Structure formats: structure tokens, C-alpha cells
Amino acid sequence: EVQLVQSGAEVKKPGESLKISCKGSAYSFTSYWIGWVRQVPGKGLEWMGIIYPGDSDTKYSPSFQGQVTISADKSISTAYLQWSSLRASDTAMYYCARAVAGTWSAFDIWGQGTMVTVSS
Amino acid sequence: QSALTQPASVSGSPGQSITISCTGASSDVGTYNLVSWYQQHPGKAPKLMIYEVSKRPSGVSNRFSSSKSGNTASLTISGLQAEDEADYYCCSYAVWGVFGTGTKVTVL
Fold first, then answer.
1. Relative to the CA of A110, which of A77, B6, B37, B98 has its CA 20 to 30 Å away?
2. How far is A112 from chain B (nearest CA, A)?
3. Burial of A105 (0-12, 13-18, 19+ CB in 10 A)
4. β-strands B86-93, B36-40: how paired?
5. Do B100 and A44 count as a contact with CB atoms less than 8 A apart?
6. Residues A51-92: pLDDT tens digits?
């Protein structure tokens, strides 16, 4: 079964750094784009960015460019989303999702989500 | 590229059809046939229902259909069922992706 399994919930303080992960299985990890989507509790979905693990080509939404870093380690079929200095406004559920084959415009497989709470 | 505009809520009775609109701009919805639709039940990850305007992934009911005209895409749910009660989001692309504001569908 094709799956994306995300790392567990995190509780951090403002200013701290964080890296969350998304491990793919049962498919060719290097052949599909992987994206990240934010959802603040009670709010809508926000497209953050996307990476092609085969060559690490990455695209960011302007809203998130410079605020987060998306990366991937194809040797362990894992994508990452990281922050260098968290803010309270980063508190949200973060989903990774695999794009439909041959495109990066739709996500057909989703991870279970990682809840990130930033509070002093 | 601002969030695409969707109605906050749409409701219908079982068996009826409802339509959710998704309005963007000529730079995204209007130019690219890359509109997708997602269903999200409370506490769950989103589920892809439609991609590239009108394609349905395997396993998605044919009660879900979509179209596009100009800068507006539309998702139609026919034969509304209780299990269709959820939040629905459209998504489009230009240089990057953007989701719609979301629509809560209520089955009366």
C-alpha cells in the first residue's frame, strides 16, 4: 500500500528550530513530487511548497518562501519541512502529500499530518 | 496570487444536487486546466476528488463532477448523501499552488 507516514506531534517554544519528516513507502519516491500543506486549527488549507526528490527541484508559495525549507533525502525516501526560528503563528497541522503521477498539480496520497504547537 | 474564492457554506437534502463554485483569476484558474478538488472530514486528511478540472481518481464516486468556465471552476455533487457532509477545497496552480477558502457542505 502506498503510504506517507509523518513524524509525531511537536511542542516547541518561539525561536526554536524544528524539522518534521514524511516517509514514503511502496512507490518510487524519486518519481513523484511531494508537497506540504498547512492547516491552522479551524481554518483552511494553505499550499506551502513542493519538491521533486529525484533532483530536489523545489517550488515555494511566496507566503512561505524564506519562512520554511523543504528538502528530501531520496536514500531514505523521506521529505522534510523545517523552520530555523519558530513563531506562535506557525502553530498548525502540517500535511505532506504526494502529487499525482506526471504532474505536481494535485495530491492523491496524504500523510496523517503533524501537529506543531509553538507556545512559550 | 490570493486564495481562490468559495462560498462559505452550501447545503442540500439527500438525493439533491449541489454545486460549489471556485473563483480565481485569469493567471490561475482562467489559464491552466489544473483545478483540483479535495474533500476533508473533521480530523482527517484531505482526499482528492477531482484533478485537472474533470478527472476522477480511482475509487471516487461518479456522483462528483467538475467543470470550468473562464476564471471559475465548479464542483457538482449529485445524489447527495449523508457521507458527503464535509469541507471541500478547490486548488489551482500558476507558478505555485493556491487553495480555495473552503466550503462547508451540510446535508439537511
1. B6
2. 6
3. buried
4. antiparallel
5. yes
6. 999 999 999 999 999 999 999 999 999 999 999 999 999 999
